[in-house]
Amino acid sequence: MSIRSILVLAVATTLVANCASSNDPSDGCPAGYTSKKVCVQCGIAGGCARSETKCAQNCSSGNECSDGQPSCFEDVCQVGGCI
Fold first, then answer.
1. Which one-letter DSSP state was computed for residue 25?
2. CA–CA separation, 69 vs 38, rounded Å?
3. Residues near 83 by Cβ (< 8 Å), separated by ≥ 6?
4. How buried is residue 59: exposed, middle or buried, by Cβ count under 10 Å (0-12/13-18/19+)?
5. pLDDT, position 81
6. Can you tell me the distance from the alpha carbon of 15 to that of 2, in angstroms, rounded to the nearest whole number?
7. CB of 75 within 8 A of CB of 58?
8. What is the pLDDT of residues 65-81, one digit of tens each?
C-alpha cells in the first residue's frame, strides 16, 4: 500500500468517525455538544437557507468553533448573521 493510499484511508476514517460521533442527536451527543436545530447555510437573499438538527458544538465565542461552522450563535457553533 502506498503512502498516499494510507494517508487517504487515515483521513477518510477520521472524517467518518467525527461525523458519526458528533452529528447524530438520536444516539445522544458527546460531551461539549448539544442537540439543536442550527443554520448550516445562508440564503442568497439573506436568512437561513438550510438548517439541520444535529449535535452542535457548544461555544461562548466564535474562536471556540472547530467543527467547520464559522461563528458562535445562540451558544452553539453554526452559520450566523445571514443578512
1. G
2. 10
3. 46
4. buried
5. 74
6. 20
7. yes
8. 876 777 888 899 988 87
Q: Which of 27, 81, 22, 80 is nearest to 56 (CA)?
A: 22
For 9-37, letters b (16+ CB in 10 Å) and e give: eeeeeeeeeeeeebbebeeebeeebeebe
CB 34 within 8 A of CB 40: no
Per-residue pLDDT at 8 exceeds 80: no
pTM for the model: 0.61
What whole-number distance in Å separates Cα of residue 16 and Cα of residue 30? 15
The x, y and z cell numbers of residue 35, run together, are 442537540
pLDDT in tens, 16-63: 444 444 456 666 899 999 999 998 899 998 899 999 999 999 999 878
